[in-house]
Amino acid sequence: MHYLKDITMPLIDTHAHLDFYTETSTDREDVLRRAYAAGVQTILAIGIGEGPATMHQALEIAAATHSHDQPTIYASVGIHPQEAASATREALAKLESLASNPRCIAIGEIGLDYYHLENPEPEIQRHAFIAQMQIAAKLSKPILIHCRTSELATPQAKQKFGTADAWQDLLDLITEHWTPSNLGGIMHCFSGGIPEAERSLAANFHLSFAGNLTYPKSQSIRDAAELAPTDRILVETDAPFLAPLPLRGQRCEPAFVAHTAAALAEIRGISPDELAAITTQNFHRLFPTTA
């Protein structure tokens, strides 16, 4: 596959951690200008920070970015499952307050992560996930889902999480606590296969594809990308992580979403410009206040 082709239509990066670009005093501004030059006109900045104490940073970036040569920035706010033990009553109250800001268009990334040994026990993660879904439902904001299984984890992590299946637990919790709200969301950096895709789509979620779509061992993700309905696909970078081929190993940037978009277009047998137009329309349909 040749992942980058000329894309003349605007693109949206639906998931980037802009608060991580702090290597120099102008790092973030330089990253945003490169994104805009690459055709990325909108970015959803993910507001998890390093935990609840800094989850406001994405909103601050969104509020401060109004340059003609930088993308429009929207923000989310959430407590990542790795930080689930910090989802105190005070932290959740802060989240709800931040989420009430019109510039905050989603709650996330939230979910379950059974990959790292140091992650909280599943019950703690589930409690934090449910609490944040309840806040999102109250505020009528879509949710951004993080799900990582223990399948490829270290032996120690596999022993800790045992037979617990993050996808099964996640989708069961969504069915019970989210589906009744009739609100949608995004399966961020979708990394499942066709069964997980089908259940996610049935639960009214969009599938967002990141740079790992382009990796040689990601055939199950590509199978899901080919299956997904046209009106349920999005593209993202998860920057500064998961740079797509042929840039794998570099620090990822929102500009790199063009590579993932071209790869997804090739998988689906359409032009990159068609893919850009489709994913932009899908984003604005899910988040109508951004149109």
In a few lines, what is going on in this structure?
The chain has helices spanning 27-37, 57-64, 89-99, 122-139, 155-161, 166-177, 194-202, 219-227, 257-268, 272-286, and strands spanning 11-16, 40-45, 72-77, 104-113, 143-148, 185-187, 205-209, 233-235. It is α/β, with parallel strands linked by helices.
What does this structure look like?
- The protein is built from 10 helices and 8 strands.
- It has 291 residues and is an alpha/beta fold.
- It has a single domain, classed as TIM Barrel (Alpha-Beta Barrel).
- It has an 8-stranded parallel beta sheet.
- The model has no long low-confidence stretch (mean pLDDT 95).
Keywords:
291 residues, alpha/beta, TIM Barrel, eight-stranded parallel sheet, 10 helices, 8 strands, 38% helix, 15% strand, globular
Helix content: 25-40%
Mean pLDDT: 95
* CATH secondary-structure class: Alpha Beta
What is the CATH H-level superfamily?
A: Metal-dependent hydrolases
Write down the overall geometry.
globular
**Strand percent estimate:** 15-25%
Distance between the termini: 33 Å
Number of domains: 1
Main sheet: strand order: 1-2-3-4-5-6-7-8
